[in-house]
Amino acid sequence: MPTNPLRYALLALILAPTPGAAEQECEIALSETNGATSIVAMADAADWSGGRYAMSVSVRSGTNRSTSMQSGSIGGEPDENGHVPLSRTVVNLPAGSEADIVVTLSRGDAEAGCQTRLTR
Questions:
Q1: Quick check: helix, strand or coil at residue 111?
Q2: Is 22 strand, coil or helix?
Q3: Structural domain that includes position 108
Q4: pTM of the model
Q5: Each residue of 12-28: pLDDT tens digit?
Q6: CATH code at 34?
Q7: DSSP secondary-structure letter at 25?
């Protein structure tokens, strides 16, 4: 039986930032409850105390397609790990579906991003 990574209580992916942003990070945290997947985009508060973010979640299930876009200013209180939560969304991913999650951060000339794909 294959292991489904969404069955873990929390899966945090810290992915490499885009070129030119070697010290900045973006994080996508995933958790699953009762078949629904919660997606939270976060930024390192030390590197991203301001600027803008955008999160895109594109879900494909059979012939159905949907895309959710969220954006705003980076700010707020960091959590105990030093991350500022940016955006949160919940998706239902039935068997055979995929979701592409892309997060971008920008402030002046600095840019960073992270992305992941969920497959059921």
A1: strand
A2: coil
A3: 5-119
A4: 0.77
A5: 333 333 344 444 478 99
A6: 2.60.40.2420
A7: -
